[in-house]
Design a protein that fits this description.
334 residues; alpha/beta; 7-stranded mixed β-sheet; 4-stranded parallel β-sheet; 11 helices; binds 6-O-phosphono-beta-D-fructofuranose
């Protein structure tokens, strides 16, 4: 193989870009920051890191980042730039302060790594102040339209799955029902993957309007089939969460039931290879997007290629869970 040509035409004449992480952290965010910094360096573009997301932006918490500053970070969970959910940024005054900071620093474009809340923040900054913004999907929830997967999702599924496997051991030994709650405020992507990979008896997700009472018949049926324990997966966003589902089981069957809420453990840890690779590709693509003169879009990866989706569509359009996988979960829980 000959050496690949890594030069990319800088049609927009970009000289300096800023990058920040915002909202809930996700494993692989560091790999995305690293990709932005190193792609910038290779293309002769200066990269400035913003600490604490949009909160740090309007307070002027910026620092130059070079290739060595991101050494030894690809394998680390969390975000070296820190993150926050900013209330001030929701006000036009907060965004005006942030825009002034970016102008002071001579920034030609901003790369926002985060979820839909963060993209709202970027979208309004661009609309009101004309600063080009590129989004990079970083959230464990995988709930953004315009990309097959989001950075952090694969790791979160692995983390949740390893907990489910352990709970299955203890649940089976005690012949108990375990109701396990996984993250996903509005989306059941994590829940569905974990249910199929963890061999769960049932899964409750916010996208499905299945009544909570259905769980009683499902558990009774499992017992009748001779199962010695059951695993029920519930997405956090399903009405009442795991506690409500467990209560329904206890009341309807009298069987010994335990609840385990996995919570923020799913957001931490070493990113798995799929998240590191996705983050590396999307971080690189985000710099190229600015150089190409693109703005107000999220870079995503769909069917193996890089795609660009207007930021507002990432939250206005809905990425549905795989109905086929849902059917498969049902099929195999006999
Ligand atoms: O958006 C990612 C996410 O982990 C959701 O799954 C969860 O509902 C939320 O963030 C929790 O947010 P916080 O860390 O602010 O409690």
């Amino acid at each position: 193989m000959t050496q690949p040509d890594i030069a990319h035409p800088n049609l927009a004449g970009i000289k300096r870009v800023a990058v920040l992480t915002s909202g809930g952290d996700a494993p692989g965010m560091n790999a995305a920051i690293r990709a932005v910094v190193r792609t910038g360096a290779q293309q002769g573009i200066e990269v400035v890191g913003v600490r604490r997301g949009f909160s740090g932006l309007h307070r002027g918490e910026l620092q130059r980042l070079g290739p060595r500053d991101v050494a030894n970070t690809i394998q680390r969970g969390g975000t070296i730039l820190l993150t926050a959910r900013s209330h001030t940024w929701r006000t036009p005054e907060g965004r005006a302060k942030g825009a002034a900071v970016l102008r002071e620093w001579g920034v030609d474009g901003l790369i926002v790594i985060g979820g839909d809340g963060s993209f709202h923040g970027g979208h309004f900054l661009q609309e009101e102040h004309g600063i080009p913004v590129i989004g990079v999907p970083g959230t464990i929830d995988n709930d953004l339209y315009g990309t097959d997967h989001t950075i952090g999702y694969f790791t979160a599924v692995e983390t949740a799955l390893s907990a489910v496997d352990k709970l299955r051991d203890t649940g089976g030994s005690h012949e108990r029902i375990f109701v396990i709650e996984v993250m996903g405020r509005h989306a059941g992507h994590i829940a569905l993957d974990v249910a199929v990979a963890g061999g769960a008896e049932e899964v409750f997700i916010p996208e499905d309007k299945k009544p909570i009472g259905d769980v009683v018949a499902i558990v009774k049926d499992s017992v009748a089939k001779g199962k010695r324990g059951s695993i029920i997966i519930v997405a956090e966003g399903y009405q009442g969460g795991a506690e409500a589902v467990a209560e329904a089981i206890q009341e309807g069957t009298g069987l010994e039931t335990r609840v385990s809420i996995l919570g923020h453990i799913q957001r931490g840890g070493t990113p798995v290879s799929s998240d590191r690779i996705l983050a590396s590709r999307l971080g690189e693509a985000a710099v190229y997007a600015l150089m190409d003169g693109k703005k107000g879009v999220m870079v995503g990866r769909t069917a193996g290629g890089i795609t660009y989706t207007p930021l507002h569509e990432t939250w206005e359009k809905r990425k549905d869970v795989s109905r086929d996988l849902y059917r498969c979960a049902k099929m195999l829980s006999i």
